[in-house]
Amino acid sequence: MSPPSDIRAVVIVGLGKPEVKTVPLPKLRDNYILVRTTAVGLNPTDWKHVDGARVGEAVIGTRVGCDYAGIVEEVGKAVTKPFKKGDLQIVVPENLSDSQAASLGVGITTVRPSSSGEQQRIFIYGGSTATGILGIQYAVASGYRVATTCSPHNFEYLKSLGADAVFAYRSPTVLDDIKAWADGCDSLTLAWDCVASKETAKLCAAVLSRTKEGHYRSLLPVPEEVVRSVNEQVDAGFTFALGLLLADGRVKPADTEVNRGGKGLEGVLVGLRELKEGRVSGRKLVYTL
Ligand SMILES: NC(=O)c1ccc[n+]([C@@H]2O[C@H](COP(=O)([O-])OP(=O)(O)OC[C@H]3O[C@@H](n4cnc5c(N)ncnc54)[C@H](OP(=O)(O)O)[C@@H]3O)[C@@H](O)[C@H]2O)c1
């Protein structure tokens, strides 16, 4: 069966306005593959793009979405990787379902692997974000002791992933509590921020060592002077990353919630609102098509 000439997509029709529309199937380019999507995962970047966060009105008319799993339908003639019609794309270990696979894309390329394990401890701000959940497991698997923050209802979940200490970020004593954990080693020099606001950056800088060079890395850019204003020993940067240890089951994808608010692209519109309004906690929204 040949692919249809039209497909359905979530299209940005105005700033803050996503709609499900029938649109032409993109023409297959030589270096691309055509995939029939079976499940999609949502990310905060999706609703941020709908709102025009990066480029304003230039997003109007574009289609929304990053993470998916599906079946290869056609392979462009210049593609060199061994894709063939009927393959599952993305390639995932057999122990993951399509919905779990759809939850991984942006998160898995965002979490940065540690280099050598010479650091003994790391602080991860926002451990219950989808990327934090992956980051904790990767850090633990790399030999780090991890302290992290989340709401109390996620404490046990993050401990089950291997976090050594978990702190409530809304607690008035959160800073002192983390410092007490950090002072236990006098060498906390790494912080990874999965929320990445000025406030969270300052807290991260405040818990790092005052005597040793420290490194703050965040999922969204935060000006280095924000971090330096709190702790001059700390540099700042923005992380993208490569891979995680999924195949042997040591790293698990974030729990998925499938079709919250409805199936398919209509459900995606509900999910975008849920994400934007902060009602997604400790899990990843995925929609089957
Ligand atoms: N640069 C990149 O490539 C890249 C890639 C992916 C994501 N990002 C960005 O990184 C951020 C996280 O993305 P995600 O997909 O991992 O998030 P997510 O899973 O949608 O985050 C939801 C979680 O955020 C936590 N949270 C919300 N506000 C918080 C705060 N002020 N302090 C601490 N925790 C807070 C909540 O924890 P509790 O329920 O426990 O309170 C909730 O579980 C977003 O801003 C996103 O745009 C960047």
From TrEMBL:
SMART domains in alphabetical order: PKS_ER
Alphabetically ordered keywords of this record: Oxidoreductase
Pfam families given in the database record: ADH_N (PF08240), ADH_zinc_N (PF00107)
Domain of life: Eukaryota
Keyword flag Oxidoreductase: yes
Alphabetized GO MF terms: oxidoreductase activity, acting on NAD(P)H
Stated name of the protein: Chaperonin 10-like protein
